[in-house]
UniProtKB/TrEMBL annotation, chains A, B:
GO terms for cellular component: clathrin-coated pit; clathrin-coated vesicle; plasma membrane. Residues 58-318 form the F-BAR domain. Residues 1-25 form the signal peptide. SUPFAM superfamilies: BAR/IMD domain-like. Keywords: Coiled coil, Signal. The keyword Signal applies. The keyword Coiled coil applies. It holds the Pfam family WW_FCH_linker. This is Growth arrest specific 7. It comes from the Eukaryota. One of its GO terms (biological process) is clathrin coat assembly. The lineage of its organism: Eukaryota, Metazoa, Chordata, Craniata, Vertebrata.
Length: 338, 338
């Protein structure tokens, strides 16, 4: 991490580059602004200003793009950039859940289809067809049951190999996210608290400086000694207030650093988790397509025995079988003779 | 057609070889029996008897096996062999109809499945997933609609190419069969009528012969001339009755021939129709299996675009797209400076 150290702090006057109330001033060239207690450089104000490089160039990394709070379009509140990242994670969890629901719906459809085909296969329609044709027909009916089995197997595998993984991936994720959220929020609160401390010390210094100035400009011929004493005291207090301000600024900067580090670490973690989520989903959806391929192939094979028996259909053979069973008599009539 | 001509007619005594009342006698070796007015040879009674050869050997042809009436197991009625053949045809028509019904049921199942898949494809679940993963997911949903189309196409083709032909094949068949039935029945009725004629003539001849015998054995010394006259008259009447019997037997034999010819012709026609029916059904069921094959192949192809998009899923690209849209600010914080 590389901070660009700037030499002036700014406070008091609204800057046209920003929407928020901020502080800016120009002393030695570089300018800063505080937005919601975070200290930012103001870009492009001076030509000498060293530009910030992305921490992870060309990666569109979370750690590079979510520093600023996002202003709520409706009102005056704003949302931390980190919140945007968190919402993205929660949405991802929701997507995972909805995809699992979709698979559940598919499972139900397959089960219904299988049930209907199975029932149809038990139909007595044309059961009285006999011989080789009857066998082919019986196999055709049986193949409907085989198809039902294929679809039932498909739905079972969908449940085990697609729905379940989607449902159970990162069960406890929301809790994890809450932890991250609370931690970052705490660090911002500390930062705000330190910022308040800086403001307080800054005001105290201003007061002390004003007091010193007033006292220095006074002339008191009558009480010269006491006056010198007063000026020395005022000067001492002013110096103390200055030290106090520097101390508060230091505390502030440490708090900001801490928040900064945590932001980078956590946003990179969220980034990694998102990559994992996308890969997990891709895997499961590939499993879906694999099962679909499989299913269509198994389904094709249910037709083969039917084809074979249809090939063997033999009307002559069927006639023989039927005639053997149903013939009434072979003796042919003859002429009557006297 | 080759009739075995036999030299004796038989009548009067029940024959142990048959269930029905019949006539049999043994004069010169070959024997016949009438069953329901049809004249049959009695098989295996004399070693010299020429055996009947099948009209169409090795073919199990209808024309060889349905000459005898079938006795109804419950009662004393019997059913003509031809009726058995006709029932077979009617049953075949029924089978055709039931197969079409089965296909109709399959069509309904496919339509239901298609409807469900299509509805599912329009689900908004996980529609908020973006980037390359979002595209793959959207395609997965779309593929469910593609599958629905495949199954709808399957059901439409089932209707046109399998159900309809099965339903419409030989629409008017029952009427055709009725015609055959009535024609054969009529010929049997005529045969029965001629048979009655023979019986009547036979009885008349017996009466005339008895009368002649009686008259011949009488001695009438008183009225010798008249008596001679009476005997001549009786002899003439006897001869006439004999001619009459032969004439009736001839009419009978012609009626039997006519029925015989029609039996052969019609049973061969029914045989041909049955072969056609079996072939027609085989064809349609083959079309069913062809459509099944097709459907599974088309179905497989619906998964391919999904596979391709899953291949292209790129978490880094998705991060870029999302960060570009949702970033809050790139400027990193800097130390506050006084």
């Amino acid at each position: 991490m590389c901070f660009v150290h700037l030499s002036f702090s700014m406070f008091g006057c609204p800057c046209s580059l920003w929407d928020w109330s901020c502080c800016c001033a120009s002393r030695e060239g570089l300018q800063m602004a505080n937005i919601n207690c975070v200290t930012f450089p103001i870009p492009n104000v001076t030509p000498d200003q060293a530009e910030q490089q992305l921490l992870k160039p060309n990666e569109w990394s979370y750690c590079d793009y979510f520093w600023t709070d996002k202003k709520d379009p409706q009102g005056t509140t704003s949302v931390a950039g980190f919140e945007v990242l968190l919402q993205k994670q929660l949405k991802g969890k929701q997507m995972q859940k909805e995809m699992a629901e979709f698979i559940r719906e598919r499972i139900k459809i397959e089960e219904e289809y299988a049930k209907n085909l199975s029932k149809l296969s038990q139909s007595p329609l044309a059961a009285q067809e006999e011989g080789t044709l009857g066998e082919a027909w019986a196999q055709l009916k049986r193949s409907c049951h085989d198809e039902a089995e294929v679809h039932l197997k498909f739905s079972n595998k969908l449940q085990c190999e697609v729905e379940k993984p989607l449902l159970t991936f990162r069960d406890n994720f929301k809790k994890e996210l809450k932890k991250y959220d609370h931690h970052i929020i705490d660090l911002r609160k500390q930062l705000a608290s330190r910022f308040a401390g800086v403001e307080k010390a800054r005001k105290a210094l201003a007061d002390r400086q004003k007091d010193l100035e007033v006292k220095t400009q006074q002339l008191d011929i009558k009480h010269m000694n006491k006056h010198e004493e007063d000026i020395k005291k005022a000067r001492r207090k002013s110096t103390q207030a200055g030290d106090d301000l520097m101390h508060n600024v230091d505390l502030y900067n440490r708090a900001q650093s801490k928040w900064f580090e945590e932001m980078v670490t956590t946003s990179l973690e969220l980034e990694r988790l998102e990559v994992e989520r996308v890969e997990m989903i891709r895997q499961n959806l590939r499993q879906y397509t694999t099962l679909r391929h499989e299913t269509d192939m198994f389904n094709q094979s249910t037709v083969e025995p039917v084809d074979q028996l249809l090939q063997s259909v033999d009307p002559a053979r069927d006639r023989e079988l039927w005639v053997r069973e149903h013939k009434t008599g072979e003796l042919r009539p003859v002429d009557m003779d006297i």
